[in-house]
Amino acid sequence: MSATDQPQDPQDAGDDDVPSLLFQTTYCSRAAADVDDAAIERILAAAHERNPRLRITGLLVFGGGLFFQWLEGPRDAVETLMGMIRGDGRHDSVVTLSETEEVRERLFPTWDMELVGAEDIRGVLEDARAGAQDARSAATLTRMLEHLDDGVLSPLDRG
């Protein structure tokens, strides 16, 4: 499934169907030694329960012992979630890669949290960039792809 195949989230559109102000953050962290598939499933289950209520969308990539995550939504909700992630023992060395707040379309409008395999991250980001209707969204996706190219996220790209 391509993130860009999904319709704009109607809760994010104003009266004129203009995208709303969204806060976005991307981070990378090292997984604790005991993180296994069951732990990832618990993370996803919690996200599927919580994120729609908080109007947070995004994607989670896990590979090579690293987490990479894109979160977007209301600033307060995303910042609260990031505080929880920083305090979560399954994450070590949380590094924020980017933060922005701007009026734009959601990049992953119906993904309350989608797990993307490390081997698929480049394709997902390229598909999302190809379908982005907003120039700022396309630029953000380009920066994410550049993080893969410059080696910052190379363990994710290798899986």
Task: Please characterize this protein's 3D structure.
With 159 residues, the protein is of the alpha+beta class. 38% of the residues lie in helices and 27% in strands. It has 5 helices and 5 strands; from the N terminus they run βαββαββααα. It has helices spanning 37-54, 75-86, 121-131, 135-149, 154-158, and strands at residues 21-31, 57-63, 66-73, 91-103, 114-117. It has a 5-stranded mixed beta sheet with strand order 4-1-3-2-5. A hairpin with a 2-residue loop joins strand 2 (57-63) and strand 3. Helix 3 (121-131) packs antiparallel against helix 4. The longest helix is centred in the first third of the chain and has 18 residues, at 37-54.
Which features does this protein show?
159 residues; disordered N terminus; alpha+beta; 27% strand
